[in-house]
Hints:
By secondary structure, the chain is an alpha/beta fold. It has one domain: TIM Barrel, CATH 3.20.20.70. Helix content is 44%, strand content 15%. It has twelve helices and eight strands. An eight-stranded parallel beta barrel has the order 1-2-3-4-5-6-7-8, surrounded by five helices. The site of glyceraldehyde-3-phosphate has 14 residues, from strand 8. Belongs to the triosephosphate isomerase family. Pfam families: TIM. InterPro entries: Aldolase_TIM, TIM_sf, TrioseP_Isoase_bac/euk, Triosephosphate_isomerase, Triosephosphate_isomerase_AS.
Amino acid sequence: MNKNLRKAVIAGNWKMNKTRPEAKALIEELKPMVADAGCGVVICVPYTNLETALALTEGTNIGVGAENCHWEKSGAFTGEISADMLAEMGVKYVVIGHSERRQYFGETDETVQKRVRAALDAGLTVILCVGELLAQREQGITEEIVGLQTKVALGGVSAEELKRVIIAYEPVWAIGTGKTATAGQANEVCRYIRAVVAGLYGQMAADGLTIQYGGSMNAKNAAELVAQPDVDGGLIGGASLKAPDFTAIVEAASK
Ligand SMILES: O=C[C@H](O)COP(=O)(O)O
């Protein structure tokens, strides 16, 4: 399939960065720079910045996302935020299953599945993160790991709901390390994920699925990565914190 028929999306994942004044300054700087983007543009921000981001991006081409959500609608879950709470605010996207949640906060494929379910039920679009550890790549089990993560996370997701899922392939060894997967490595795994999705939902659904690459993507390497036939944009950490860097990646994905 011609990849131009698929939507490339560049999503910033700010992680635990930016106070409200800092967020305001970054968004104000970014807005005019990405106004003519030829790809989807999303910023996923800390909960404390959601209201600011929503207000400042109203009427623009920038979508706003959260970085996680809980699977229950409400209740005694101190410190958690539900998908319904996000949707009610006007948030449209949520990152689920990021490797930092898996690594530091006990996220498992099963809890990822529950969060995906809750997010879709709330009407959100999910940016589902999958990716292997360095040791797993070295053992030659990248496809096994990424395939399993994808299948479990999508358990119970209908073909219609899949239209509100973006998958981000993020090799854990490339996140925040400055070690980018080669364009060939990124494409190979994104293509494999597409084949897994084709097995679950059929080729047409898989061909329409946005699959991003994430892991030390920056202004310099973005063009080669996003030009790959199965890479439909990126999930950007560090480089999303500076408007010129993020804009350069958006421009690379707009060609
Ligand atoms: O969600 C974003 C990824 O974790 C990539 O982060 P990074 O671009 O800082 O490597």
